[in-house]
Amino acid sequence: MGLTRNGKKGSVRRATSSEGFGSASTYSNTSSFGSLADLGNDSSVDDLGNISVVVRVRPLSEREIQRNDDTIIQVVSHEQIMMRPDVKPNGQSALSGAQSTFNQTLTAKTFTFNSVFDQTATQSEMMDKSGVGRVIAMAMEGYSTTVFCYGQTGSGKTHTLTGPPHLDKPDPFSEEHGLIYRAFVHLFDRLKENTKSDCTYIIKASFLEIYNEKVIDLLNLSTFKKPLQVRWSRASGGFYVENLFTVECEEFDDLLAVLEEGMRNRAVGSHGMNDYSSRSHTILTVHVISELQASEEGVYLSRHGKINFVDLAGSEMTKKTNSQGKTLEEANNINKSLMVLGYCISQLSDPRKRNGHIPYRDSKLTQLLSDSLAGNGITLMVACVSPARSNLSETLNTLRYAARAKHIRNKPVVVMDPREALILSLKRAVMALQEENVHLRNLIDLEKSTSQQPERPLTSVIRSANSEQVSLTGAALDTPRLSELPAHEAHQLLHSLLQENRALRKENADLYSLREALLRQQEAVTKHNERLIKQIEVKNIILEFITNKLLCNFTDGGEQRNDEERIQRK
Ligand SMILES: Nc1ncnc2c1ncn2[C@@H]1O[C@H](COP(=O)(O)OP(=O)(O)OP(=O)(O)O)[C@@H](O)[C@H]1O
């Protein structure tokens, strides 16, 4: 690819492997708090669903340290996080003297997630333990996947996804690279491992932002003036962005160029809580299209997986961020779209409401995330929080949303329409062949019984083959919908059907030749019979002639004897 904009090629550099990304070290827990007994519990341990939720706690910022802000977050285990606003660093109770209305906010709370990362977690630990590897593997299998970062402004979302702001000209071996860069490295490593298989992959990427409810293509500057439209596709049953520029990426560098170009063009501003605050939501989509040769006859299966990397703008209390003018308008739009997102998440997490109306259309963000939240995808939510007491209510809100998101249940499917169609057509062909097979065998049995010929070796061979053959199709027809089958099972089914189809075709061809042979034999026997009948007829005629002759002779002889007797008597 040559990604160009304004005649310039995107700045690219090469990183061929995951060198420099060391293996993860162990988690560490800060245990500056007292006993864990008698704590409120907002969520329970849940089985790993299609939406997994991890939490990352960033370190206290310079501003927070200067303000003497204290830490109210404790990572209890790899899966549990606890808020202890009721205890001050000196061990005193924060409740003493506090107004009773605040007491509820000040009680300790524990939350359980798929993973929890404390302030010391490195970028490489995030990559290795958050589940991004699973997301990439699923995208390569053909699933639609999403990694999105959620949290208040300044909580570390952009840091987690792309790294710190000064990583504009990234060193390929920097420890500070975020999940996106590491995911690219991981993806290309996996693709290289796959070069020996029959599967070929095509990688494409697009990068958009939602700024003040307008969709802008970060790889196409003209859309800054003329934003893109979000449309509903009846065919795919989801929302899509019309005319979004999608770049084919043959190499790692091409994908990196897309990331760098988009990061340069996205809206960033400064406010009281973050010097490099994202003023828009961004969605970087990596499409992983795979083609697998399914049969020697040149049948190809294509699967369309994708990974959406979503960097949400952070919710902000405009009083705290001192937002004014343009920044205030941005903050209002950000808060509004996040409110709609929060509402959709809470509806979807409630089993009584998830099948009702979900207001995706109330914001561009929820329209474009609808598939990740409730559709057929697999989603990893990274909730980012600040450990500071001054951000108590924002952190509590984030953890509550994250806990709700964990209860959402969706149904992942491989996007494989052409394959499904192929499987169905193969099943139909197998059924037709089986019917033909039964019909042929009946015909042969009939012919055999009429010709009364001894069973020939070919018949017995086919007989034994038939009795040993197990029909896969019959079983397959009873299976649940193909779309519900895991990819590898669908693959197996397809291969079995192809095999069974080939075996049936061969068997039917053998049956046809056997039938031909039997017909020929029958014809020969009939001809032979006809010849015999003719011979018998000829012999009958001769016999009749001889008999007549004999009779005549006998009659003539009798008359002669009578005459002689008469003469003798005379
Ligand atoms: N885990 C971390 N380790 C070190 N520094 C961090 C970490 N997380 C965030 N930071 C720093 O905190 C600051 C704010 O982080 P970042 O810009 O990623 O927040 P954000 O959630 O994306 O904010 P916004 O919503 O305003 O865009 C940055 O300077 C970032 O480098």
Which CATH class of the largest domain? Alpha Beta
* Sheet of most strands: 9 strands, mixed
Q: Structural class per helix/strand content?
A: alpha/beta
User: CATH architecture of the largest domain, please?
Assistant: 3-Layer(aba) Sandwich
> What is the CATH third-level topology name of the largest domain?
Kinesin
Which radius of gyration do the C-alpha atoms yield?
40 Å
Tally the helices.
15
What is the CA–CA distance across the termini?
139 Å
- Uncertain spans: 1-48, 98-102, 453-480
**How many separate domains make up the residues?**
2
The share of residues in extended strands comes to 15-25%
Please provide the count of β strands. 19
What small ligands are held by the chains? adenosine-5'-triphosphate
CATH homologous superfamily placement of the largest domain = Kinesin motor domain
Helix coverage percent? 40-55%
* Global outline: rod-shaped
Mean pLDDT: 75
